[in-house]
Amino acid sequence: MPLNLVKLCVGVSEIEELESWVNDCRAGRDTLDHVTRMFPKRKDEILPGGSLYWVIRGMILCRQPIAALEPVTGADGIERCRIAFKPQIIPVRPVPKRAFQGWRYLESADSPPDLPKSAKVEGMPEKLRRELAELGLL
Q1: What is the model's pTM?
Q2: Greatest Cα-to-Cα distance within the chain, rounded to the nearest angstrom
Q3: What is the pLDDT of residues 85-112, one digit of tens each?
């Protein structure tokens, strides 16, 4: 089982906003990526098959499969990590997660499961999805 990463999705309040951002980024770009300060030392455990789980407003709500982890140097000369994603966003069973800085490793055993396609969550308002998750009904 691959190792995963978890990160706050700052400035996004629901999955639909993240999906919109992904669609906007894909228009006119060859890659879909996010640059972060620290490079994972456990890269070989993440690739292939790992995902970045996004924390949106205090809950892990979705994941994006990671295509690559590449070292890059910023204009300021500081080494960073470029996380390249596959374009799909996969909703997961919502799990509360407190705020933190940067990213954290997320073991496969601790990763929330994907929501089944039959769960009828597409089109469900984000607020209702969160409330159902808090009650343990989703």
Answers
A1: 0.81
A2: 48
A3: 888 899 998 899 998 888 999 999 999 9
